[in-house]
Write a structure and sequence with these properties.
heterotrimer, A mainly alpha (about 300), B mainly alpha (about 325), C alpha/beta (about 450), B: about 325 residues, mainly alpha, two-stranded antiparallel ribbon, 13 helices, about 0% strand, globular, C: about 450 residues, alpha/beta, Rossmann fold, seven-stranded mixed β-sheet, five-stranded parallel β-sheet, 17 helices, 15 strands, disordered N terminus
Chain lengths: ~300, ~325, ~450
């Protein structure tokens, strides 16, 4: 019984991390119809920015518990600077082209950002682990966990609810939903579609950078962060359905729980579990679990 | 698109093959090796171009690339088959067989879902290869020099032998691809790309066309994988990784779907850029490569192929 | 279609493109016009996950050492400038990009950049791929870092050398350390990355433990994905299975993330952690490194390096240049370059001072031995192509006054104690109970 609770809690903590990272990816795809391979790079930039900001703040004696706010602020800064730069400066040149071409553009962005982050921050690792240990520990089913993990779950749920509320209960959100369903009709109704694209892309980059910034206290921030994140967030988004927030949540839960179960019960399965789940879901329901209805043009 | 007759196509192929063989006498060895790899990779991209002509882009050709490569490598090491042509052919056939169960399933999807499903399959193979220690696990394993019709080359001659085999197979496949593209099925593929529903109404099966294009691309991918393994002397699970697949797609997009030769030129260009970026920018070669990719996508909207067609003198087309 | 290459060249637009390309190739192929230099191609990770922990420190070590060599500043017997007067020129290539790319880069280094020697390769996969290529090309190659024993146990080479011990030594030494310190081990956990390095380390440690701790049981045997970075679930699994020790061959960012996450959740208090290759995380982690962790450096490196005038010189050379003391990666690069210098100068003394041919170099390095900052390196295995060396294991302790992690309880193991003999494969040697091992 204890084992079951442990598996569930481990699954939840991993799923929370996955969800924050994957939410941005699914949002960008839903609105802009771009599958952003550079998503992992924005994650890495967020991690570096968060680590840099918090190390500086901690050195001027800020309380570690408050530094979480600084991490969020770093993510906002990253998205405010990078998102308009990449979306307006780069992606806009390729709108209207084949969607796979756009994927390749994001692949080029990923390559460029890898070296740019290395040039800006160097190869030495950055640590901000004081933040990770600032929230005490708690014991669940005989296991010791850190408060930070629970905080992550809370932030993930918060992000999900906030995004859902913005999209479904605010006027701006309904406009964005309209653009998701059909950009052409929305434009003909007077919506500034390119501004919506920019805002949605900023949201996606913010969420990626937030994922990175919140992860920074748990790891050593160094080159090579982006690659592992890309594949795993793709898998979650594909399982859940591209463009669907509920899908990203369910996908994250499925991947998190299956991974936790594999590690506790049969470790050799862990490497596969994500790809096999992805392949199975794609065979049964290729548009993912929560598909968006897509009109077909004749 | 200029219609051609099969005889003319094969004549051009033979000429190009002789030209390539002649070039190997004057070019430096490192360039010949680079071109061998470029042609082998070009075969995979050629398959992708065939699929792009029917409106789908596969992001998981690493699956067939690795399938062909591992088959050739295993036949070499376990069964002692060392003939380069035989290994390539068997690599192609093995990839074809591995793709067979997935073809009709995949042919029902389009756009990003098709791409992601192929990606998922290639990553599953990657996972399997990483875990299978009998196949060398994550480090892979080596193969030694192949032979040709019983002739066993010295170490120094092996480069030329492989170049000859790869150039020959590439020219042959290029010619066959050109003929296929100009055939009824090939032209129907273009129609499928434009408007599937109308093609269905005209009585042709879209799924059939797309599935067969996928299988042909699988055969080409397996050929490319086998030739790559023989040239490199080594295979590892990275053959099936998503970045490898992504590069094949990039070359296909660079080439565009109008010219077959453009595919091989594009592949060679990518290898050259990658090689020189590595030498001159050891710390920032990824940045250099990314900028190159962007410039190509921006300034060559329809691929190299369209540029090459514009260079040819205008001639009346005859049917 | 009557498209030909000639027609392509006749048009303007592609003409400048091909002219540019031809010019670039000509520049690249132009031979050095100055006096003759000895050109070394150095390949290591400049990007990706291994850059920070292994690649860049090794390249930094190479840069500072080559400069010192050229100025003749190294202590005797390495005090001749360059290689017996011939200036050393180094070019650096990034090992990232996969084995396919590395095979091409190796050929480019030999044939386009015209290097005399290549020293490189951290990744075992890359080593396995490039070694046969160098051998076939009859070109001199030194593998300075990769760990897999497979290179010389599966093939014979004449032109390929490895100037460091392979990875079997690390885990055998670790097990021997535990035994000689009388650490009680009835049950043990393992966590290793799920690829060849992690799997081989796990196997070597398990087999060694079977010999030294008969009856010890494996509890948790975890193999997280390489580059996972998130170990919450693994840490829970380890905590549910109490054991005496936790063995790991994790390295780089994965190891650092694991240490940060596991120490926050009390893993280090409950189990004695032993790391086979952990010394490279010590300078960065500082006070975040828990005390009492038993670790190795894959050789007598860093804070465990033996005292000698050569080592003192090297240690301060690196530390002054980079503000951090050298850990394992720069040491391994240094011992490769010292070995190369010794072999090149021996060959040049025999051939009258000319640049040695590939065969002369190979003959000079084969079966030789030389002094390095980490002790004597002897090319004793693989028919004289594979080195063995002493190693050391220590225990961590953070020194608040010095603001760095120190290593206590250092125990040294002689080369013949923890390396297999020339006549046996590593795995067979461990399974047979280390026959012929010479330990005090």
């Amino acid at each position: 019984m204890n084992l079951l609770i442990t598996i569930i809690f481990d699954g939840l903590t991993y799923a929370a991390w996955l969800f924050i990272v994957a939410l941005g990816l699914t949002l960008v795809f839903g609105v802009l119809k771009i599958l952003n391979i550079a998503h992992g790079s924005f994650y890495a930039v967020g991690a570096y920015a968060g680590a840099s900001l918090v190390s500086w703040l901690l050195s001027i004696q800020m309380s570690p518990a408050l530094s979480v706010v600084a991490l969020v602020a770093a993510a906002v800064a990253v998205s405010a600077i990078l998102a308009p730069l990449t979306e307006r400066g780069l992606l806009r040149m390729f709108y209207g082209r084949d969607e796979v071409l756009l994927v390749l553009v994001t692949y080029a962005m990923f390559l460029m950002l890898e070296d740019i982050t290395k040039l800006l921050w160097g190869v030495n690792p950055y640590y901000v682990s004081d933040t990770y240990q600032a929230f005490g520990t708690l014991s669940i089913a005989g296991q010791s966990y850190v408060g930070y993990d629970v905080l992550l779950i809370g932030i993930a749920v918060g992000c999900g609810l906030l995004t859902w509320w913005i999209l479904n209960r605010t006027r701006h959100g309904k406009v964005v939903t309209a653009v998701i369903h059909s950009a052409e009709i929305a434009a003909s109704m007077g919506v500034n579609v390119s501004r919506i694209y920019t805002l949605a892309f900023m949201g996606g980059v913010f969420l990626a950078a937030l994922g990175g910034a919140l992860t920074a206290p748990m790891i050593s921030v160094q080159p090579g962060l982006s690659v592992g994140v890309i594949i795993v967030s793709f898998a979650v988004v594909i399982i859940g359905g591209l463009g669907s927030i509920e899908g990203a949540a369910i996908g994250a839960l499925i991947v998190g729980l299956s991974r936790a179960a594999a590690v506790h019960i049969w470790p050799p399965a862990e490497l596969f579990s994500i790809y096999v789940v992805m392949a199975i879901i794609l065979m049964i329901r290729p548009e993912g679990l929560f598909q968006r209805i897509q009109a077909r043009k004749i | 698109m200029i219609a051609t007759s099969s005889k003319r196509v094969f004549l051009v192929c033979a000429l190009v093959f002789l030209l390539l063989l002649g070039l190997s006498l004057v070019l430096p060895k490192w360039l010949i090796f680079l071109a061998t790899i470029a042609l082998a990779n070009g075969l995979v991209s050629l398959g992708i171009v065939l699929m792009m002509r029917s409106g789908v882009v596969p992001f998981g050709q690493g699956l067939v690339f690795a399938a062909g490569g591992y088959t050739a490598a295993l036949l070499f090491n376990r069964l002692g088959i060392t003939d380069a042509l035989a290994l390539s052919l068997m690599g192609g056939i093995a990839a074809f067989l591995i793709a067979l169960p997935f073809a009709s399933l995949l042919a029902r999807y389009r756009g990003i879902f098709f791409a992601m499903l192929t990606l998922a399959l290639s990553m599953v193979l990657y996972g399997i290869l990483m875990k299978t220690n009998a196949l060398g696990g994550s480090d892979g394993f080596n193969v030694t020099r192949p032979t040709l019709f019983g002739f066993r080359p010295e170490a120094a001659q092996s480069t030329f032998l492989l170049w000859g085999v790869t150039a020959g197979i590439s020219c042959l496949m290029a010619g066959l691809a050109r003929i296929y593209c100009d055939s009824t099925r090939g032209l129907l593929s273009l129609a499928v790309r434009e408007n599937e529903l109308r093609v269905e109404y005209l009585g042709m099966s879209v799924v059939n066309i797309v599935a067969w294009n996928y299988l042909l691309a699988a055969f080409l991918g397996g050929l490319g994988g086998a030739l790559s393994v023989l040239a490199l002397g080594h295979i590892d699970p990275n053959f099936s990784y998503w970045t490898t697949s992504g590069e094949f797609v990039f070359v296909a997009i660079l080439a565009g779907y109008q010219s077959v030769i453009a595919v091989f030129v594009g592949s060679l260009l990518l290898e050259l850029v990658r090689s020189f970026s590595s030498a001159y920018f050891p710390n920032t070669w990824q940045l250099a490569l990314g900028i190159f990719l962007l410039l190509v996508i921006r300034f060559l909207p329809d691929g190299l192929g369209s540029q090459m067609y514009r260079l040819l003198p205008k001639r009346p087309t005859k049917d | 279609m009557t498209f030909t290459a000639k027609k392509l060249q006749n048009r303007f637009r592609p003409q400048w493109r091909s002219a540019l390309l031809a010019t670039a190739m000509a520049i690249a192929a132009a031979p050095a016009m100055a006096q003759e230099t000895f050109k070394i191609g150095i390949v290591s990770f400049l990007s990706g996950q291994a850059a920070e922990s292994f690649g860049v420190p090794a390249v930094n070590g190479a840069k500072v050492l080559v400069e010192a060599f050229n100025k003749g500043q190294a202590p005797a017997p390495y005090n001749k400038p360059g290689f017996a007067g011939m200036k050393i020129e180094a070019v650096y290539v990034d090992e990232a990009g996969g084995a396919t790319k590395q095979v091409q880069e190796l050929r480019n280094l030999y044939e386009r950049e015209k290097v005399d020697v290549v020293v490189g390769y951290v990744s075992s996969g890359d080593c396995l791929a490039v070694a046969p290529v160098a051998e076939e090309m009859k070109r001199f190659l030194i593998l300075y870092d990769c760990g897999t024993p497979r290179i010389f146990e599966e093939n014979k080479y004449q032109y390929v050398f490895r100037t460091a011990s392979h990875a079997t030594m690390d885990n055998v030494a670790l097990a021997r350390y535990l035994k000689s310190r009388n650490v009680k081990v009835e049950r043990y956990n393992m966590i290793n990355q799920d690829y060849a390095w992690g799997q081989d380390s796990r196997k070597d440690f398990m087999l060694s433990m079977e010999q030294l701790y008969k009856g010890a049981k494996v509890e948790a045997d975890l193999l997280p994905k390489f580059g996972a970075g998130q170990y919450g679930t693994e840490i829970s699994a380890l905590s549910t299975k109490p054991a005496d020790i936790l063995h790991s061959s994790l390295w780089g960012g994965d190891l650092q993330a694991f240490i940060l996450q596991a120490s926050a959740r009390g893993v280090f208090q409950k189990q004695q952690v032993v790391l086979s290759a952990g010394d490279h995380v010590l300078p960065g982690l500082g006070d975040k490194m828990p005390n009492g962790v038993i670790l190795g450096a894959r050789g007598a490196y860093g804070l465990m390096s033996p005292k000698s005038s050569l080592n003192d010189w090297w240690f301060s050379l690196y530390e002054k240049a980079y503000n951090v003391y050298p850990v394992q990666a720069p040491y391994r690069m240094a011992q490769a370059l010292f070995g190369l210098k010794a072999a090149a100068e021996k060959a040049m003394a025999a051939n009258g001072g000319k640049k040695p041919t590939q065969e002369q170099l190979a003959a000079a390095l084969k079966g030789s031995q030389w002094e390095s900052p980490a002790g004597t390196i002897r090319m004793a295995l693989g028919d004289g192509q594979q080195a063995i060396q002493d190693t050391a294991i220590g225990k961590t302790r953070y020194d608040a006054a010095k603001k760095m992690v120190m290593l206590d309880d250092i125990q040294r193991f002689g080369a013949e104690c923890v390396n297999p003999p020339a006549t046996m494969k590593s795995e067979d040697w461990i399974k047979a109970g280390f026959p012929g091992a010479k330990c005090q």
